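pinned: reference chain
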Amino acid sequence: MTINRSILPPKRTFMKPDASLAIVNIVLLLVLFFLTSGALIGASAVSEVSAPVSRDLLIQRLDGPTLEVGLDETIRLDGITVTGDEMIAALADQSRLFLLVDAEALAANLLDFLDDPVFDTIEVRLVTIDSVRAP
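pinned: its structure tokens
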């Protein structure tokens, strides 16, 4: 009776490493990173930004026509109240305009006002003013 025994150790079967475990670890680390960085950014963010207001500006020293748009939608060109048609006629040959707007005015109203085609060829410079201290 002969027994076949090998003098070599038995062959081991090698398991391939599972890549899904590494992918899960990377995803969890990314989630953790974005959660912490988002919390840090949210904590230091400014919640309210106030518009710059011209307090010590002499309107008379501006080197061009001034158009003041009030909160009640009144239009004053160089201190004289005008209608929309009169404003368009007066600004037809101008190249620069200083637009005086109250600091509390809504931006949507200002953009609607500036959407008029008369402002397409005019360089408009915005000057925010404090309605309480306005001249």
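why pinned: Residues 19-44 form the longest helix (26 residues). Residues 59-129 form one domain.
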